[in-house]
């Protein structure tokens, strides 16, 4: 199995990268991966995406400890991902209350997937805008630049939120998984010529060139810049996993 990650501050953001990514082994051949994009209009938006990443890592570690005391190996991929999301939801509620955070301090998109490398099954949830590649197929989750952030629903019970949430994806035969924040659609040429953002998404999330290199995504980003003068205007986080 090959894992690649990319984090790049966009040209429009002078101070902070507001995106973040996570790849964590779950045990039993399962891997959790996620990308987050803090809302530029929020307050200190890099904090929200970083907080989500830290909480995800915490939840994963707690589940790993749990495996020593009880058998959770029979949990389906979908059920385990939902349980992780529920734990994240609860931790966000606690952080909001403990730190006295306003809603606009917790605004971040989130696309999170659980992949079983033994079976090729993957299940994921997308909260807000995101791009997902499963094998050759690329799916864009778009909310017209008005993401329905998780922070808007922290006054609800998790089950209520989950029942009305519609953005999910699933495959039982995944050999290539790619997750990206909406910065993947923000590439522009420094010489003002038009760019094909769909071709760029395919190049980063599907194309197999340079997959033998651990820095594949960073090399491709440099090629886009040096050969075609293409750079992301918005922050960009990418996670890609190949089962080989």
TrEMBL record:
Residues 16-203 form the PPM-type phosphatase domain. Transmembrane segments: none annotated. It holds the Pfam family PP2C_2. SUPFAM superfamilies: PP2C-like (SSF81606). The lineage of its organism: Bacteria, Pseudomonadati, Bacteroidota, Cytophagia, Cytophagales. This is Protein phosphatase 2C. InterPro entries: PPM-type-like_dom_sf, PPM-type_phosphatase-like_dom. It comes from Hymenobacter mucosus.
């Amino acid at each position: 199995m090959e894992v690649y990650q990319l984090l790049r501050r966009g040209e429009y953001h002078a101070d902070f990268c507001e995106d973040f990514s996570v790849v964590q082994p779950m045990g039993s051949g399962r891997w959790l991966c996620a990308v987050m994009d803090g809302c530029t209009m929020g307050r200190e938006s890099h904090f929200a995406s970083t907080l989500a990443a830290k909480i995800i890592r915490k939840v994963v570690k707690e589940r790993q400890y749990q495996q020593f005391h009880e058998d959770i190996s029979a949990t389906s991929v979908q059920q385990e991902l939902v349980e992780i999301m529920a734990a994240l939801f609860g931790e966000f509620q606690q952080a909001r209350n403990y730190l006295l955070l306003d809603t606009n301090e917790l605004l971040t998109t989130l696309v999170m997937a659980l992949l079983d490398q033994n079976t090729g099954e993957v299940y994921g949830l997308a909260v807000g805008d995101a791009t997902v590649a499963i094998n050759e197929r690329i799916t864009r989750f778009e909310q017209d630049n008005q993401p329905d952030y998780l922070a808007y629903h922290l006054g609800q019970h998790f089950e209520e939120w989950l029942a009305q949430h519609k953005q999910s994806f699933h495959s039982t035969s995944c050999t290539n998984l790619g997750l990206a924040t909406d910065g993947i659609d923000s590439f522009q040429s420094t010489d003002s010529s038009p760019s094909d953002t769909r071709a760029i998404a395919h190049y980063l999330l599907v194309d197999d060139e340079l997959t033998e290199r651990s820095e594949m995504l960073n090399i491709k980003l440099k090629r886009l810049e040096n050969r075609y003068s293409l750079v992301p205007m918005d922050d960009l986080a990418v996670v890609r996993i190949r089962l080989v």
